[in-house]
Amino acid sequence: MLIIDGRWGLVSTGNLDEESFEGLKSVTAEPCRDFAITITNLEMIKDMQRVFQADIHHEDVIPTHPQLVWGPDRQRDVLTKMITSAQKSIRIYQQDFQDVELAKAVEAAAAAGILVEVIMMPYPFSRTKDNNIPNQDKIRASGGKVYLHKTHYIHAKILLIDAENPATRLLCLTSCNFYTPSLEGTRELGVLTRDAEQISQLLEIFEQDKQN
Q: Which pLDDT value is given to residue 15?
């Protein structure tokens, strides 16, 4: 999260490091696939600042703006409701998808005939073990598709619902992995948007990444 002069904000799925922007040639790590969203809504920025200041001083705080999805406060609930509300499609970018409850919700949607497409990368944390495989296999078995991207390191955390339907489309861009400790124990921030241009731009990249 970045806030500039109390008037401009940025929420990103990425980290502010060399590996994210350029990759690490020393270990043949590819640049990360990440997304960011700019925020100029002053009420959203005020809420971001308020939570930030409370966290600095170790104070309790209740986030209030409905477009901001703070973790661990309500992110599991928001993400689950998004998945179960899908009428046509669910598209996901994830670095880590080990959480059983979210996986079951995605599996149920796929089994019900909802288009489910997930883009990840193989072995994101180890060259020998990938703990994402069990949930990936279950999603495939339920009728969903899982694409393992190899051009970039998939670090993005995106949940996109019903992109084709203006009435129900909803995008959540978040810093949170679908990993139980991240969902339930860490400070994360996501943004909800129904903006047609933002969703269209993301969908275009998603379709390109499926081919790789």
A: 86
Q: Which residues pair with 158 in a beta bridge?
A: 93, 173
pLDDT over 60 at 26, yes or no: no
Q: Are strands 115-120 and 89-93 parallel, antiparallel or unpaired?
A: parallel
Cβ proximity of 152 and 33 under 8 Å: yes
Helix (H, G, I), strand (E, B) or coil at 47: helix
Flag whether pLDDT at 27 surpasses 70: no
> Which residue ranges form the domains of the chain, and what is each CATH number?
2-210 (3.30.870.10)
Closest CA to 105 of 74, 84, 119: 84
**Is residue 190 within 8 Å of residue 44, measured between CB atoms?**
no
C-alpha distances (whole Å) from 148 to each of 136, 154, 165, 209 are 10, 9, 26, 9
3-class state of residue 33 by DSSP: strand
Spell out the SS3 assignment of 136-147: HHHHHHCCCEEE
Instruction: Please state whether beta strands 153-154 and 2-4 pair in parallel, antiparallel, or not at all (unpaired).
Output: unpaired
